[in-house]
Amino acid sequence: MNLAIFIEQILNGLITGSMYALIGSGIALVYGTMKVLNLAHGEFYMLGGYFTWYLAVSLGINPAIAIPAAVAIAFCLGMLIQKLTVEYLILRDNWAFTTIAATMGLSIILQNAALLVFGANFNTVPSYVSGVMVLGDIRISWQRVLIFVVALATIGFMTWLLKYTRLGWSIRATSQDRDAAQVVGIPVKRVYMICFGLAAALGALAAAMLAPINAINPWSGMPVLLKGFVVVVLGGLGSFPGAIIGGLLLGVVEAVGVQLTSSEWRDVISFTLMIAVIWWRPWGLFGKK
Question: Residue 138 sits in a domain of what CATH number?
Fold first, then answer.
């Protein structure tokens, strides 16, 4: 195997893994804070792709404006959905099951709404930057470099937000003990709503950056949701840092596996890795036993 091609595949795996990390971190953020498994998370990814396509292609808005706008719309939509559905369900005795059932139903509703509004066509967005970065024999498109840079910047921003801001302290306190957080005056309901919005925004950003590479359609959220669950299982369900490491790890393992086998085995490799981690360390690489 050509060494330069192998290194290119590893780099492409890291780039893809950085998007997995954004998607998985949204799932981990909601579960870690609210203990809710959001089965509609993939649809926020799908809608983020459609919002970006509509703003950048249909309306002709510059991607530098269209992408933040799409992410902001997804953030507001996520907060609205949490306010209208999940907020009332988590007050019930059987909230763990009802939230899963509700988000599953929400996933189907959003899929069909996208099918009704945008149709069944596969839509793509033109590349945001053109050209290829050349490092010796290694060639990586600038579009993929941009994806990786945006992912790293977003991960850095989220890390700063969770560790060094009042909102982040409130999120961490709520995730540790909701009742104690309420006693000291933290608005838990508002924290839940913001976390849901942030998760939706992370998924939408991943879709916006991948839109020039992966086609957007009403069903594009389900494969992403499955990969997101693989990521959070690898990193530890509810662990935000674990989701970041898990996403990067999954991307690299997939890239190496595809090189050794073929692209048809990509999903088999992902879920085999997940099963192996569940067998060896059920609480994930960075989760708590």
Answer: 1.10.3470
